[in-house]
Design goal:
It contains twelve helices and 16 strands. By secondary structure, it is an alpha/beta fold.
Length: 349
């Protein structure tokens, strides 16, 4: 061995531990490296694979992507063990099939049983290690707003500790099950009053709370937005809508920007009817086959239609889709009471 390298030998073990603890990407573990990592504090993830196995090649790419994003959000590292090379180690950990993914804290492990893709795995791991208010820098915010659990982000008022303290308390208890909870960094603050924004990849809306900053009010808001307010109409949402048995209010448009504008306009209406009416956006180009059954024509878009069981109601032609118009339309069609139906507003198909 080169003399100067030999002199550094006592430091090589420390260097290895640093790489195991703090390195990004996916590193390979042999039995010795596994024992060293298991002796360190904190959670880590191992994918057990046989590299020649085709599903393992796909999972490797997902692990690399998950590791990249974990490096931006936590100190959790991801490793791989080649079970064709280290059969004894895999057998000692009861690894019986490939690929297998497990999370470890020292030598104690739990099997990850979710989809073997980067985003679900990342969501699962961060949920295990995140039980408090997360400081959202730009990188962490970009990753966490795109996970499988909604991100509730606080933007505090300048020099306001009370809202941060309240959210920190809720993050550990009441909000821990349904949300990641974070606070924007001081550089992103500058408002006169605190507000909360919820980001959910399945929600076309981005709900915002700027009311009284009190525990009861915030928890009520959380109960309304823990599930998507307005979903995109696709195969996955259809199943959810059918299971709920609720009427569906559908916004038909052939233009993506127009659909985004409608979503922003009708978010408060969707929140008002939470638990009574489901709301969805419908891409009228991809779902052109659905126009005729709904009594719609391409030159009538954008359009708003309510389907309740076998009944279909269409907002009257020529009427602008506004919050007041849709609120009144829903009341007349689904919750008739003191209001008298306006034939110009409601067309029954």
């Amino acid at each position: 061995m080169i003399l100067w390298l030999w002199s550094l030998r006592p430091w090589l073990g420390l260097f290895l531990l640093f790489e195991l603890c703090c390195g990004q990407g996916v590193s390979s573990l042999d039995p010795e490296a596994f024992a060293q990592r298991a002796a360190l504090p904190g959670v880590f993830v191992i994918g057990f694979c046989v590299p020649s196995h085709e599903p393992c090649k796909r999972v490797h790419n997902e692990l690399v992507l998950a590791a990249e994003n974990l490096g931006k959000t936590s100190d959790v590292s991801i490793y791989e063990v080649d079970c064709s090379e280290h059969e004894t180690l895999c057998a000692s950990l009861d690894v019986l099939s490939f690929p297998t993914i497990r999370t470890f804290r020292h030598e104690k492990w739990s099997r990850y049983r979710g989809p073997q893709r980067a985003t679900p795995l990342l969501t699962h791991v961060l949920k295990q290690v995140t039980n408090s208010l997360v400081k959202l820098d730009e990188e962490r915010f970009t990753v966490m707003k795109s996970l499988g659990i909604p991100l509730m982000a606080l933007t505090p008022a300048a020099e306001d500790d009370s809202s941060i303290n309240l959210m920190a308390s809720l993050a550990k208890e009441e909000l821990a099950k349904d949300f990641f909870v974070g606070v924007m960094s001081a550089a992103q603050s500058g408002t006169n009053a605190p507000f909360i924004t919820v980001y959910n990849v399945r929600d076309e809306a981005t709900p915002k709370y700027d009311g009284p900053f009190e525990k009861k009010a915030i928890l009520h808001f959380a109960s309304l937005v823990s599930q998507p307010l307005i979903r995109q109409f696709d195969m996955s949402s259809i199943v959810s809508f059918m299971k709920s048995g609720l009427p569906i209010g559908m916004m038909y448009s052939a233009n993506e920007d127009e659909r985004k504008t409608l979503v922003a306009s009708l978010s408060d209406v969707a929140m008002k009817y939470r638990g009574k009416v489901n709301f969805a956006t419908v891409d009228a180009i991809k779902n052109s086959f659905a126009l005729e059954p709904m009594g719609l024509k391409p030159d009538e878009l954008p359009a708003f239609v309510v389907q309740a069981n076998d009944e279909i109601y269409k907002l009257g032609p020529g009427l602008t889709i506004t919050p007041d118009a849709i609120d009144g339309f829903i009341k007349q069609t689904l919750f008739p009471g003191t209001m008298q139906p306006d034939p110009l507003v409601v067309q029954r198909m």
